[in-house]
Every structure is written in structure tokens, then in C-alpha cells.
Amino acid sequence: MRTVILANELAAAVASAKAAGKKVALVPTMGALHEGHLSLIAQAKKRAEFVVVSIFVNPLQFGQGEDFAKYPRTLEADAKLLAEVSADLLFAPTADVVYPNQVAGATQPAAKSAGPVGEILEGAIRPGHFDGMLTVVARLFDLCQPDIAVFGAKDAQQLFLIRRMAATDYPHLEIIEAETVREPSGLAMSSRNRYLDSEHLELAKQLSAALRFAKQKANTPEQALESARAVMAKSPAAKLEYIALVDCDSFGEIQAGFKGRALLLIAARVGQTRLIDNIEIVF
Ligand code: PAF
Q: Pick the residue with more confidence: 24 or 110?
């Protein structure tokens, strides 16, 4: 597996794969790879003959006081893992490659706006996060020109916004959703799980327990919300930020009497670590 850093190296590798008749898949990541990322790559490999994995910790999607500086950066181990799973290309750009017009020392403004859906739930707690996320994802799409891009279902609001952006700005790009990969305890895999000690891991598994319990009990949206809140109330040390039910199609909070596919979303802080998870429920 080759690693490239520069935009023209990426473009040349992708062009030669396409010239050889290969479909190109992009798996954007911020590194610190785990089983969840490997499942995204497995999905990509099923659908494309040339799989590019990008690793870039995007400063634009971190707010002040968030974990940008301490976000795990494990490029060497990541490259080894990617070679083991036979990814074709690792694109590991520096910030000046992704944001070439950035003035040194200045904060790069986000070029994309996530709109109102970017301001609720995760976006309310992390203002500007989704504008920064969409900006880098669009930039990666522009640099790589993939046929397919794969994202995890765990980041449901992110996935919704990427799909919506792709539908208008990248109509030929197919967005693939990969199922959340879980620890045996039910905890959704995340690069941030490595911040958790054994006491925190115990608390963290309450998020998925709350979602599963709610799905079992849910005849109505109200019951689903109450059941999930009841599970979380038993572990107050996990600081609940929100539990919400949204319509899969609009990401709008659902109203009483809703019928259709919904996502039950949860976010909580365990120690210093924010965790999110979700489950689909059909009413
Ligand atoms: O989900 C992530 O790891 C990031 O938000 C993404 C999509 C790679 C953009 O930086």
C-alpha cells in the first residue's frame, strides 16, 4: 500500500486507477483506526477495486476547548493496519494541502454551511462542527474524485448532512452507510474510546444499553424516550446531554403519533469524553 501526502500524487493515483477501469472508493477518517474503520474499508472493497483511505485530523471541525490537540494521532500503526487489510492508497495530507489558501496562524473559515440541521443536537453542543466537517469532506471529495464514499452510521447527523450535500453538489457520487461496529459490551467503537479507563468503560456501555432497551419497549415515540431516559437515570455519573428521536428522512424531531423510520439518538459525557450512539426504530 502506498502513502501519499500531496494533492497531485492523490490525483495521479486515482486517475491511473480509473484509466485501468477501476471504481474508486474513498473512506475519509481522522485516523486512530479501529475495527469500525476496518468495516468501512470492507464495505468499500466490496464495491470498488481501488480503495483510498484518508487520514486527516480536521482542525475546522473542533471547537474551542475540544480535543483537537490531544486527538490520537497514530499514523504509523494506522498505515500498518491499512496494509494488512489491503487498502490501495493512504492519503495523509498536511493542513496546507487540504486548505492551501489558509493564512498561516489564522483560523480557516468553513466554506460549507450545514444549515439548520447543523445547529441542533450535536450541532447545538458543538457550534460550527458540521460546517467544518462538511468543508473537509467536500474538499476530500474534490481532491479524490471518488465514485463511492463510505461513512459510519454511528455519526448519524454527520451522515445525514453528507448525504444531503452529496445529493446536490456531487450527484454522481454514491454514499454508502456502514453499520456501527460494537464492542462485546455493546459500546459503539470510536477512536475516542481510547480515552476511557475501566470505570468509564463500564459507564459508557449504558448508552447502547439505553438504546437497546428503548427499542425493545417502544410502541410509541414517548415510550422509547422514557425507556432510554430511565436506563440513563440509573447511571448519573454518565452525564446525559440529549436523548432525541428524529425522522430518518428529515432529521426533524418527531411528533406524537409519528409513523415511520426514526433514529433514537443519544449523547453523554463520560469523564472528559463525549460519546454518541443511535439506533433505528420503526413506529
Ligand atoms: O467521522 C470522521 O472521522 C470525520 O468527521 C470525517 C468524516 C473524516 C471528516 O473529518
A: 24
- The pLDDT tens digits of the residues spanning 152-200 come to 999 999 999 999 999 999 999 999 999 999 999 999 999 999 999 999 9
Predicted pLDDT at 109: 78
Task: Cell numbers for 198, please give them.
Answer: 475501566
Asked if 228 and 257 count as a contact pair (C-beta separation under 8 A), the reply is no
Taking alpha carbons only, the member of 235, 232, 233, 213 closest to residue 224 is 213
Per CATH, which fold does 191-278 belong to? Pantoate--beta-alanine Ligase; Chain: A,domain 2 (3.30.1300)
Active site positions, annotated: 37
CATH 3.40.50.620: does it fit domain 2-178? yes
Nearest CA residue ID for atom 1, ligand 1: 29
Hunting for cell 450527484 — which residue is that? 171
Residue whose CA lies nearest to ligand 1 atom number 9: 133
Q: Answer left, alpha or beta for residue 73, where phi above 0 means left and psi between -120 and 50 means alpha.
A: beta
User: In 10 A of CB 251, how many CB atoms?
Assistant: 21
Q: Cell 468503560, residue?
A: 201
* Residue ranges covered by each domain of the chain: 2-178, 191-278
